Amino acid sequence: MFTFLGGIILLIIGYFTYGKFVEKVFGVKEARTTPAYTHKDDVDYLPMNTKKNSLIQLLNIAGVGPIFGPIMGALYGPVAFIWIVVGCIFAGAVHDYLTGMISIRNRGAHLPELAGKFLGKFMKHVVNAFAILLLLLVGTVFVTSPADLLYNLMDGWMGLGIILGVIFLYYVLATILPIDKIIGRFYPIFGLLLLISAVGVGVRLIWTGAPIPELTLQNMHPGHAPIFPLLFLTISCGALSGFHATQTPIISRTTEREGQGRKIFYGMMIAEGIIAMIWAAAAMSLFDGYSGLNDMLANGGPAGIVSKASTLMLGSVGGTLAILGVIILPITSGDTAFRSARMIIADYFNLSQRKIMSRLWIAIPMFVISFALTKIDFTLLWRYFSWANQSTAVIALWVGAMYLFIAKKNYWIAIIPGIFMTMATMTYIFNAGIGFGLSLNVSYVIGAVITVAITVIFFIAANKARAKEVPLEEDISGWNSVA
């Protein structure tokens, strides 16, 4: 219990200390007009207040990742708490803040465009492909997982196909309609369910004195699976997630002032970390140890654990509300995953999105592909999602490092987590069955060599970019103050 509570306290302290430090390093310009005003189109670009933006950002980034990931990561034992806390404060929240703020400085640009500007034109095409792949995987995963939960909650009286159809219909509307029509209007209600589920389970864990394992040298990692790199790919959302780099530009286009960025981007990642801590603790303590947890995962998957834990902690009524809150999480990330994909494709081909037919021409093929992907095994999809997700996070961290290097600011806040996750991701893809299937020791060596090479290439390119004085932000000289 002390490890669990201490981790949550550290996350909160991290927001007020390291979050403030990162904000100072970046250098907020309160007088600079944001894209919500300079590019206002009343579809994707329009100003919304901090409270609404924060809630939308939290729901955008907090899909099933900070629940399903920590539940599966709980098999590694209390060491999972370390990664959630340290990863969230020093990697995930930094990643989200830099991505959001650099986007604000560049007309709300998405990651492919930022990668093209700061890492070279070739990277724009690479990252564009990665981002679209990731978002389609996310959208698909976040269709199937809430559909399964709803199907179980209703004891199968509504067919799974019908549930999938209803969710897809909602996703189509959320993807093509102006952001304030559905997302901006209904997310506050969804947010209430999210808070009920997370806080309710967390309070009950504390109140009932659940046997949450403490972090000790003997108990740190009770399993046999290698912590590195598997833990850092299993628990992504809640610690560090490249998916967030695809979501923050949605809100960078609706942010009123740069000073709101720390609460919206850094703060909401901290909130997601707390959600991850709660579900990791629940998974570790409610199923008769790790063997019981492993059996539950084998029989019902993460969705089954969510249903069981919610009912155990909150009873039938409270458990149902908690499950609904968990169902909301992936839905409110799936809709913005498709919306983000639509925006990225539009930016890549320079297509105006003012007319609804222009949005439909992009959205419909995406949904056809996603529906086909729902026929693939969820576990396989999750493995590919984890790899694509953390690869995108690595790219976003290198973009942030390049921006800060050119600006002659403390780029180490992005480079250190960037190097670490580059090594983890490269090792994983060479070792994993979905990758090259090499031995772990060989994968370590190859991962290390590639990481060193990427780091050297970065510094060479960064010095050239600094010498060329690559512009860090869009010229808005015609705008002198916030409208």
Automatic annotation (TrEMBL):
Localization (cell): Cell membrane
Membrane spanning stretches: 6-22, 55-75, 81-104, 125-145, 157-179, 186-207, 227-243, 264-287, 312-332, 360-381, 387-406, 411-430, 442-462
Gene Ontology biological-process entries: cellular response to starvation
Organism of this sequence: Falsibacillus pallidus
Record key words, sorted: Cell membrane, Membrane, Transmembrane, Transmembrane helix
Name recorded for this polypeptide: Carbon starvation protein CstA
Record family assignment: Belongs to the peptide transporter carbon starvation (CstA) (TC 2.A.114) family.
Top-level lineage group: Bacteria
Gene Ontology CC, one term: plasma membrane
Membrane topology: Multi-pass membrane protein
Main localization, broad class: membrane
Classification via Pfam families: CstA
Ranges where the CstA N-terminal domain occurs: 6-144, 165-294, 304-427
